[in-house]
Amino acid sequence: MINYLKSEQYRLVRKNTLHITSLVCLLLIGAAATVLYYSQKADPNFPYVTTRFFYSNVIGSGGLIIIVSFLYNFSLTGKDTALLKNAVSFGISRNTIFWSKLLLTLSYFLLICVFGIGLMIGLGETLMTSDSQSVKDFLTALVNMLPIVFSAFFLIHSLKMLKVGEVYIFILMLLIFVFSGDLLRILFRPFTSLHEVYKYAPDTLLHENLLNFMNHTVQFGYQHWITGVLLSLITLLIGVTKFAKQPID
Questions:
Q1: The domain containing residue 122 runs over which residues?
Q2: Cα(121)–Cα(54) distance, rounded to whole angstroms?
Q3: Distance of CA 43 to the CA centre of its chain
Q4: Does the chain have fewer CB atoms within 10 Å around its N or its C terminus?
């Protein structure tokens, strides 16, 4: 497995899309901070040059983060079936292929996330009005987002490894991470005992997390971890099982 990891890492770091995506993400963070800073210079009464508003752009951008995670995962799960066939023919197990690609893409995704968070905090605390709790609340809100973002990453990885088309992946991600709360609320409306189920939907939890952050009331939410861990386990179990049986053309 170590040799396969090294070969996949070699391929990954030479992917232009990986570096372009990383650079664009960091530039967007810098651009957002710059726009807010100079908006205050132009208008001293501009009310949004605060760390809390700046950080809320990340807390409220779960969908954008999931899109970025798709681009990172795609760098090793794109149209390289010929390479998969070669790996299998050389005796590399499908489990090794599945988990190696996941481990590498997730590691690089987390690396750019950590770097981006550090950049945001550095810019926010340097250029903007800060309250004493904003960084702590920001990190708490990020911890709440983490399992849901992970579950989205694992779902994307599993679907890509199973050669599901990008359009179908996009539709499924919308259903689960954007509309699931409303769908569950409608679906279970006739059942009194299930009225609260929608509160555990990913989009409901992400929206609540944002509201709590803006209202200075954010705290660790076990519901986020219940939903995220369950989705992750189901996704990975189905993904690795089906990939082990899937023919590689």
A1: 2-245
A2: 9
A3: 35
A4: C
